[in-house]
Amino acid sequence: RKIPFMIIEQGSSIGGTWWWNKYPGCACDVPAYQYSFSFFKHEWSCPNPGQAETLAYIEKLADHYGLHEHIKLDTKVTECVFDDEYQVWMVSTSKKETITCSHLVSAIGALNIPKYPDIPGIDDFAGDSMHTSRWPIGYDLTGKRVAVVGTGCSAAQLIPSIVGKVRELFVFQRSAGLVFPPLCIQTPKSIQGNDQLKYMWNLFLRCLGFIMGDLTVKYIYTTTSNFLTRVVQDAIVKDMSNQIDSEELRQKLIPKEALGTKRGILRDDYLPCFNNPKVKLVNQKISCITQTGIETNDATSYSVDTVIYATGFDSLGSMKNLCISRNGKTLTKSWNNCPNAYNGVMCPGFPNFFILLGPNTVLG
């Protein structure tokens, strides 16, 4: 039996985070054989494909299953109210229409609201500034003096992609993170011409990836004092040290915190960028943004043409902004600044409402 459904999308195209994020070097740091549907196969060009290939995979899937006819693009949901009399959800949109449905699913994700640092003068900068997730298409950094604020996953993808173009690059780091190369398991040449064997190989990698993920969380990330954790961390630190030329940089780029304290960075081309003489790592705290650049708390000023904020997302903000209500009580108010849901999916008092990537699930 076909179930009628509608997907409401704020963006001008499908793809979610893979449509919003178009910065140079943007890629998935989860292996493609895990970050894809088991029922929709695809010949990935590499284990960790870039943004364009991941977006193309989503579009191909939507075409294959005829989803486009069910999607309303450039439409923002402004309010969702449960009608107790008719037992339906009333969904209002930015296009001044009201849609009724028996079941409501929030699939807004957690990587859609850019998080800017709370720095005085952030709006005073006279040059170009942007968040990685709102990258202007066609923007050229050639010959510019550039500041990148942040050294997390987005910055680690961005920096190797722009270092060859810029005249000078200042990277402002709040705290260092562990960097280790992505696990690149290539398809054996002996099975590349056999579709059935390739399918079995990818299925094996998919299962292996999930098993290794569970074992890593259980035996490494959650027990920082055991022998295995120390062995893994020592190996990562040694690999990082070998990629960095100077001891001064090693002290700044290699964290003292235990493995699992913050999300790891899966790159093998990030750390060598800091050996480039035109790249300067700044560990001092930013005190303010000025018209011409960035000033740190040691009174040093860095004059730049462009400021790029690689500062991640407000993962809780997307949940708190859910405009869900029943009998005048909003979901946000019922949470009382502490988002929670049964198994991360359903909230008491809001019938037939489901959350994907809900509280305390994938992103905590």
From TrEMBL:
Domain of life: Eukaryota
Pfam families: Pyr_redox_3
InterPro entries in UniProt: FAD-bind_Monooxygenase_sf (IPR051209), FAD/NAD-bd_sf (IPR036188)
Similarity annotation: Belongs to the FAD-binding monooxygenase family.
PANTHER family the UniProt entry points to: FAD_NAD(P)-BINDING DOMAIN-CONTAINING PROTEIN-RELATED (PTHR42877:SF4), L-ORNITHINE N(5)-MONOOXYGENASE-RELATED (PTHR42877)
Protein name per the record: Uncharacterized protein
Biological source species: Clytia hemisphaerica
